[in-house]
What does this fold into?
Amino acid sequence: MELYYKDLISEDASLDELVDDLMCIVQGADELVEATGAGIDQGRLAEIASRLAWLKRGLRQLQTRARASAQATDRLLHRYPYSAAGFALGLGLAAGILFRRRGR
It folds into this structure.
């Protein structure tokens, strides 16, 4: 028996929002560098542009890996739903016991 959880991977996942926000920040920084580029020497401007390009590549890679991880988790949960629920239950019980001991 297979269980199907509709929209287990949210389209508006918080990681995607974070990556989008960071991309907006990078784009704003890029526009700021272009707007104030007249007062900066060419060597410094090239360094800032290369760092912005490096940051953009890193953000795209982060987004790609996050989506791949979420899809792999989704496939795993669809393949072994009862094992995943049992694992989550056991992990929750262990965490509850540890926190209760720590509270005494």
Observations:
- The two ends are 43 Å apart (CA to CA).
